[in-house]
Amino acid sequence: MAITLTPPQRVRRPADRRHRGAGRWIVLALVGAAALAMLVPFAFMLLNAFKSPADYSTNGPLSWPSEFYTTGLRTYWEQVDFPVKLWNSVLISGSVAVLAVVVSLLSAYALGVGRVRGRLWIIGLFLLANMLPQEALIYPLYHFAKEAGLYNTRLAVIIIFTVIQAAFGTYLLASVLGTFPRTLLEAAALDGAGRWRILWRVVLPNVRPTISVLLVFFFIWTWNEFLIPLVMLIDNQTQTVPVALASLQGDRLMDAPTTNAGALISLLPAILFFLIFQRTLSRGITAGADK
Amino acid sequence: MASPDTVVAAPATSTPPSAPASAGRRRRSRSDTGYWLYLLPGALLFLLVIGGPLVYTGYLSLTKWSGVGDPTFIGLDNYRNLLTDDVFWTSFQNTVAMIIAMVVLPTLIGLVLAAVLFDTIGRRFRPRTAAALRAAFYLPQVLPVVVAGIVWGWILRPGGALNGLFDAVGLGSLAHDWLGDPNTALPAVMAVMIWVQLGYPVVVFMAALERVNPELYEAAEIDGAGWFRRFRAITLPQIRPETFVVGLTCTIAAMKVFGPIFALTRGGPENATNVPSYFAYFTFFKRLQVGYGSAISMVLTLIIVVVAVLFIRAQNRAERRDGVL
Question: Is B73 helix (H, G, I), strand (E, B) or coil?
Fold first, then answer.
């Protein structure tokens, strides 16, 4: 698109540009206020996670806690057996991330490097699979899992999300591998490397950045998934962190401070991943946006 | 699932022009079949977890079934009943509200915020200031939506933080059961979804702006173009590919939204915040009407596919138009 601009009415000195006017301070104040507003719910949660129920009912949600009360946190931790939930979430998300990346890489190798026939249709199919509402799959999955004795097992959830995440991974990796330098592949083939060897020794090292982004995405996406774990995992031994929190909602034991304590505990791992993976993520968001 | 073999993609046999002829022959002499093996695990899993269940849901939508015993085939009755079901229509109307709250408003606000953060704050203050502000907007995207739903559910309830805030500033008369009143429940849910969603466009658009040539802005500024003019003439056209991606992914997410509705309102009160995915879940697992739930899911699937195809076509057309210019 052409950029048409009116002729200069007044030439400003570029040297002044960086530190010009009070306008920039007003803009900063406005955007800063908006950013603070985004954080208010987190502040509410923190404030009330450390209050005793009695304190909450007399002083309301806005007061400063009258004492540093951690019983709410401990109650939630013990009531839902939080370490088990944490382990379930780590096990499911971790397995899915690794398995889905392996499946994506294998499929994308066939589609992007192997250029098998009908690949555009296959990639389209995978892309479509990623868009499907999970409601269109959930009842048969629930039914089959019951028949196969996989209902209420973490394995069932791992298999399902491996496929759902791999659908996206295949789509992304296939387009990355579609532009893989042919000369590299041919050089390796001339050296006598077979396809299996080429995949692990030539292709994999070259797409490692994309793979690491996919690993992080798959882990976090699976961690935050809700519908399928809600339907598939029904007891204390198998549930994930978000499902545990949601299934206690409305429980008589869940007064406001305990609810906030539970939410705080449940969101800490997510914040931790965010801090650890921040760099990979911002790189990945750009990679995703390029398609 | 249609067999992919019926469609021939040209690149399978052609060699890239840059490759030497001998290498091309060598590659062609090896058959394609070897690569199919690599597709096998993905394809089998796909059929097991996505293809098979989708077809089965399609079949179930033509039956009456409680989940026990055998489904009874009833043809298109479920779909006919949907047409006269008020809850069904309400749920799809609410999808429009979700698209406004999760796509339209976050994209518009996100465009302005990203441009301001990048252009004004990133360049007139230190880039770290912009990065810190960006993190604040992105934070809600990090937490599990159910956690967000539960915290907001508490903030908005009668004794919750929002009403406490109104009391504290002397506006106690505004106190209200925001999620419990059919008139305010949907706007309240929409507000929460804007909060959840906003960080995504902000981060994507800011990343997109990094690849725009800064000289464009400098030239425009020297030419005396004001902020809004630069926004319209440079920012918007330059980051259009990202706007499409954000629009498509958020629209699909809005049409599928489930977790926040489950945590905030369970579709209530009086279906004021019901959405197709929650309606389907409720029909499957609470009302045990598997056939009817399948029909709802199939309609939702169809609409999502149509919207996605329209989006991608619009994008392709826009790209072609730009190519000609």
Answer: strand
* CB–CB contact A133 B164 (8 Å): no
Q: How long, in residues, is chain A?
A: 291
Whether B100 has a pLDDT exceeding 80, the answer reads yes
The CATH topology of domain A74-289 is: MetI-like fold (1.10.3720)
- Selected for mutation to probe chain A from B150, B165, B230, B322 (highest A CB count within 10 Å) is B150
* Cβ separation A32–B133 shorter than 8 A: yes
Closest listed residue to residue A152, CA positions, set A43, A257, A233: A233
Out of A120, A128, A266, whose CB is closest to B305?
A128
In-domain check, residue B255: yes
Helix (H, G, I), strand (E, B) or coil at B121: helix
Using alpha carbons, select from B81, B62, B76, B64 the residue that is nearest to residue B290: B64
- Rounded Cα distance, B160 and B175, in Å: 10
Q: Is B189 in contact with B267 (CB distance < 8 Å)?
A: no
Within a domain: residue B66? no
Full domain range(s) for residue B98: 92-324
Do B191 and B184 form a contact (C-beta atoms < 8 A)? no
Q: Would you say residue B47 lies in a domain?
A: no
Beta bridge partners of B64: B72
Is B15 inside any structural domain? no
Indicate which of B36, B49, B95 best probes the interface with A, i.e. most A CBs within 10 Å of its own CB.
B49
Q: What is the CATH number of the domain that holds B245?
A: 1.10.3720.10
List the structure tokens of B234: 């440079």
Average pLDDT for chain B:
84
Structural domain spans, chain A = 74-289
Own/partner long-range contacts of A251-255 (Cβ < 8 Å, ≥24 apart): A253/A75, A253/A79, A255/A53, A255/A56
pLDDT digits (tens, 9 = 90+) for B165-194: 888 887 777 788 888 888 999 999 999 999
Q: With a cut of 90, say whether residue B59 has pLDDT above it.
A: yes
Number of domains in chain B: 1
Could you tell me if B119 and B230 are in contact, meaning their C-beta atoms sit under 8 angstroms apart?
yes
